[in-house]
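Risk register update: the risk of archive-format incompatibility is retired. Evidence:
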Amino acid sequence: MTPQEGNKETTIRLLDAAFNRKDPARVGSLVTERYIQHNPVVPTGREGLVGALPNFYMVIPTLKWEMKHIWAEGDYVIVHSIYDFGKPTAVVDIFRFNGDLADEHWDVS
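Archived output:
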């Protein structure tokens, strides 16, 4: 398996754990401690991300994620998905990896 294939698999596991399985501990195991979050709604750092997720589940109990496309190049993975935030919303997530863990994240919806 190439590093890019491994990063794509990790990204799928991360998003599935965060938004379908609602398992913040699993999400925390897939990101670096210093995880940089560029979405102002979610705090930076592993603890910030893991701590923010339960609030999302409480506010949006029907939250779901469905991947449509995924690409990887170098240390980056880009995912086009449909999130159900109460209504279907197209989102593009961009992750930068450090080794086999997600180290940085951007999103556009």
